[in-house]
Amino acid sequence: GENVEQHPSTLSVQEGDSAVIKCTYSDSASNYFPWYKQELGKGPQLIIDIRSNVGEKKDQRIAVTLNKTAKHFSLHITETQPEDSAVYFCAASMNDYKLSFGAGTTVTVRA
Amino acid sequence: DVKVTQSSRYLVKRTGEKVFLECVQDMDHENMFWYRQDPGLGLRLIYFSYDVKMKEKGDIPEGYSVSREKKERFSLILESASTNQTSMYLCASSPSGNDEQFFGPGTRLTVL
Known about the structure:
Strand content of chain B: over 45%
Shape of chain B: globular
Mean pLDDT of chain A: 94
Number of helices of chain A: 0
Strand content of chain A: over 45%
Largest sheet of chain B: 7 strands, mixed
Oligomer: heterodimer
Low-confidence stretches of chain A: none
Helix content of chain B: under 10%
Structural class of chain B: mainly beta
Distance between the termini of chain A: 41 Å
Helix content of chain A: under 10%
Order of helices and strands of chain A: EEEEEEEEEEE
Number of strands of chain A: 11
Radius of gyration of chain A: 13 Å
Structural class of chain A: mainly beta
Low-confidence stretches of chain B: none
Shape of chain A: globular
Radius of gyration of chain B: 13 Å
Number of strands of chain B: 11
């Protein structure tokens, strides 16, 4: 099955700086790569996703890049704010219902 | 707004008990999922269902079963709870495959 590795496991950034989280996947057939954000006491929520026919996607301060050759994708958060503090999960999926998640990154934004 | 609700936020059970976790979604989604979340392991898929009465095993189905008798409701059953099933359980739903999954708030289950 698909194996997704996520780094780093924890990330502390100064407010206003950028944060980058990286994931690698094992199955070249994977073609859907979502990112979820989980705030304390809540379930994960989709923040951005990318499909294998594009290399980059942006939504305001959040961007995701995909390198299919190297089988890795990254989440970039610019101008970080305190409300960006959360646990972030990457995931990968082939053309089916199953998402394989990374282990998660705990992001702390220092004021 | 899509809403996924789970029957309990916290649950404490004893080893050997039969445990039912209930999940309800209100958006007429075809697919429903049960995950468990453990520190350092992310979310792992236990079972999913793509239609009423249909179920598929995920990555860690051992010790669990599921039931989907109505489209909006998906139940996770621990036939005989064990201490290694102490975890956070998350339910999710999605309208179709490879689409956004909407998660409930989770049930933190402790098995003593």
